């Protein structure tokens, strides 16, 4: 299936990623952490991130995780899983808040029945 995007969609995506990058850079400064926020384009993002971490000689990789189900992760792959298994430095995987909140609601609903 071909993927198409209009220039407006691409511009909107760039604005969103610019804002995310600024927010993350501000958080580093706010918490007096040494680090950097980089954008990379790759057909294999896990591999690209591990290689970039090696080039930059980082001491730790912090990455988010959306928590996709086992089937989807098996079929699509997981960037965080790839990094966890291929990195030569410690990896901190932080779950996506929306998914975490949704998961908690499902658990509460199940236990209240």
TrEMBL record:
<feature type="domain" description="UspA">
    <location>
        <begin position="7"/>
        <end position="93"/>
    </location>
</feature>
<dbReference type="InterPro" id="IPR006015">
    <property type="entry name" value="Universal_stress_UspA"/>
</dbReference>
<dbReference type="Pfam" id="PF00582">
    <property type="entry name" value="Usp"/>
</dbReference>
<dbReference type="InterPro" id="IPR006016">
    <property type="entry name" value="UspA"/>
</dbReference>
<protein>
    <submittedName>
        <fullName>Stress response protein nhaX</fullName>
    </submittedName>
</protein>
<dbReference type="InterPro" id="IPR014729">
    <property type="entry name" value="Rossmann-like_a/b/a_fold"/>
</dbReference>
<feature type="region of interest" description="Disordered">
    <location>
        <begin position="30"/>
        <end position="51"/>
    </location>
</feature>
């Amino acid at each position: 299936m071909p993927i198409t995007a209009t220039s407006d969609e691409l511009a909107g995506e760039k604005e969103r990623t610019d804002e995310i990058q600024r927010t993350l850079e501000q958080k580093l400064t706010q918490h007096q952490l040494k680090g950097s926020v980089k954008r990379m384009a790759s057909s294999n993002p896990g591999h690209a991130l591990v290689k970039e971490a090696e080039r930059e000689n980082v001491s730790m990789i912090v990455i988010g995780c959306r928590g996709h189900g086992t089937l989807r992760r098996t079929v699509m792959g997981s960037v965080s899983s790839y990094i966890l298994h291929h990195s030569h430095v410690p990896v901190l995987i932080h779950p996506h808040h929306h998914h975490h909140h949704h998961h908690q609601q499902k658990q509460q609903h199940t236990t209240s029945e």
